[in-house]
Amino acid sequence: MLVPGSIRLCCLNDVFQAVMGWTDSHLHQFERDGKYWGVPDDDELEGDIEVIDESKVPVAKVLLAEGDSMVYLYDFGDNWPHKVVLEKIVPGDAISTRPICLAGKRRCPPEDVGGPSGYEDFLKVIFEPGHEEFEHFRGWAGGEYHAEEFDLKAVNEILERMRWPVKDRR
Questions:
Q1: pLDDT tens digit string along 3-53?
Q2: How far is CA 123 from the centre of its chain?
Q3: pTM score, two decimals?
Q4: Phi-psi sector, 47: left (phi>0), alpha (psi -120 to 50), beta
Q5: Are 36 and 51 in contact (CB under 8 A)?
Q6: Burial of 167 by CB count in 10 Å (0-12 exposed, 13-18 middle, 19+ buried)?
Q7: C-alpha span between 102 and 155 (Å, rounded)
Q8: What is the pLDDT of residue 130?
Q9: Rounded CA gap, 85 and 30, in Å?
Q10: Which CATH number is associated with domain 1-105+150-170?
């Protein structure tokens, strides 16, 4: 992914959702060095971790130098952790104000598949037409599921249609 450093973490979540083909129907958070960013919880239950409002924090304030990383966790039930690494800082005039997907491998797991272990089970069944759960899983996934496909053009078309902040106004 190529994203401007000024993109807020809430918008980075939107980028990840678009690339993964997910629906943003679950909670998520970013974590680095014991700090957490996400949608703050108004309930403030005792023992809860402090969650910094992701809508106020640009990615450049969390990932400062090439090689810095954070964890993006999606769906606290299925538990999809992703390591996000700042690979390269590109001069401001050389980067688009819109996120761009540069490459990808394989299709992302369907929403609510049960996390990494559930996805592993899903793949075992979906590639075995004689399996007793084959039709159920295939229908649940919306028909044919081609795990080896990644459509870079389609992902970038989705990202292009999305509304992004023009620039950091602060």
A1: 999 999 999 999 999 999 999 999 999 999 999 999 987 765 556 789 999
A2: 21
A3: 0.88
A4: left
A5: yes
A6: exposed
A7: 10
A8: 92
A9: 12
A10: 3.10.290.30
The pLDDT tens digits for 20-34 are 999 999 999 999 999
Show the tokens assigned to 154.
């389609």
Beta bridge partner(s), residue 25: none
pLDDT at 13: 97
φ/ψ of 152, rounded to 5, equals -60, -40
| Cα-Cα end-to-end distance for the chain | 24
> Where exactly are the structural domains of the chain?
1-105+150-170, 107-149
Distance CA 163, CA 161 (A): 7
The DSSP-derived string for 92-125 is GGGS-SS-B-----SPPPPTTS-HHHHHHHHHHH
